[in-house]
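note to self: the first set is below, dont mix up w the second
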Amino acid sequence: MVRPLVILILLGLCGSLSGCVFSRPMVAGNPVFVPAGNEDAAWERTVDVVHDYFDIARENRMIGSQPGVIETRYRIGASLLEPWHRDSYGLENRLESSLQSIRRKAIISVTPAQGGYLVGIEVFKEIEDLPGVANNTAGGATFSQTSPIRRDLDLVTGQSSPSGWIALGRDEALENEMLRQMQRGCSR
């Protein structure tokens, strides 16, 4: 009884401390100005940063003064046990993704500006909404030792209906981290 209480208190402390004490400073604005003299260099730098976090679904490059858009595929949020994935930024987001199915998708716009480009990043976060309990069991597809063989070929059952997703808004922590990476790469 005491051990679960201690674990809950420690998790609560970690969640509350990760918000203010250990957070990095916010990037000033979204979009940010990225100095670049070459359209291709700015675009490739943006694609490199996006690849660190997401898989790209489609790209529409800049044409003249029209902005370019990069849209990513949804990615299931990394848990505490997946430190090599960067899509869940911060302890609070990693803990949330460990306890509940979270997915994210990013839309990045690159707009030509005087002396460089304006890069805007929007990361949308969604939580899974299961319509009911999934009735899969660990040994549902194996043969039972105590009963005769059944000829039922539908032993493995899945969800009765597909999952739904509920929008949680934008993930500003991840947006700011990606924008920081953009600025850091262009200042070299």
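second set (the one i keep forgetting abt)
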Amino acid sequence: MANIKSAKKRIKVNVEKTKENNYYKAPMRTAIKKVEKAVAIKDKDEALKSLQTAYKAIDKATDNGVIKDNTRARYKSRLTKLVNGI
């Protein structure tokens, strides 16, 4: 356990940041999995609906600094390729 005041604060800040990151990352991951699942069963309509939801979740994560811009572009590109491959 930390003894120095600044180290104690860093621990608190890191815990809060982890919670905040997970608040945006968890829905993003779930949305991505839904798209992949819809593609796996070849349901084009469900895949397109899920893709829009995934785009929103990915954009929210990027806007809040959880993922970087290139990561956003990579996720969107991969998902779009999957859906277009149906």
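remember for set 2: The mean pLDDT is 96.
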